[in-house]
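Q: For a teaching handout, I want to show students what a protein-ligand complex looks like in token form. Below are the inputs, and the small molecule is zinc ion. Please produce the holo structure.
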Amino acid sequence: MEKNNNAQGPTHLHHREGLGGGSAIASFLEARGVKPTSTRLLVYRALAEHHHPMSLRELDDALDTVDRSSIFRTLTLLLAHHLVHVIEGGAGTALYEVCEGHDHCSLSDQHAHFYCTSCQRTFCFHSLHVPQPEMPAGFTATAINYLVKGLCPDCAASPVK
Ligand SMILES: [Zn+2]
Ligand SMILES: [Zn+2]
Ligand SMILES: [Zn+2]
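A: Here is the structure, written as tokens, with zinc ion included.
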């Protein structure tokens, strides 16, 4: 009678199957020219599994076994390979998230973010692509910070005052 849990089916896991296993991440990093050391795997996986972009402090809190300077060096490397994006959070903190481009990074993969001025959380709006501004001749855009500020549904429903 314990075989009941088959009925539930792991459908909710399918979304992340591509990134679920360490070996999948390892081969992904390798394909993008990054040697998959254990620290890089830990940092990348933490970012990939998190629902919000993370600050260095949040990553440091999430990864007990890696010190902050190693995390920072790893982020710098992942940024250089366009595997990770940095966004300017509403509170002036740099926030990191994985690039959602499949085989390369492009502006059209980037999405908008929302910063709640009340609870100070930053949300990803994955389905809201950033507008592509037409650049003056000679300028090449490589990243766009598109941050909307306001109140999230939780805070709008229960105003502080
Ligand atoms: Zn990207
Ligand atoms: Zn809020
Ligand atoms: Zn995001």
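A: Two things your students might notice: The CA atoms of residues 137 and 160 lie 47 Å apart. The helical segments are 17-20, 22-31, 38-49, 56-62, 68-80, 153-157.
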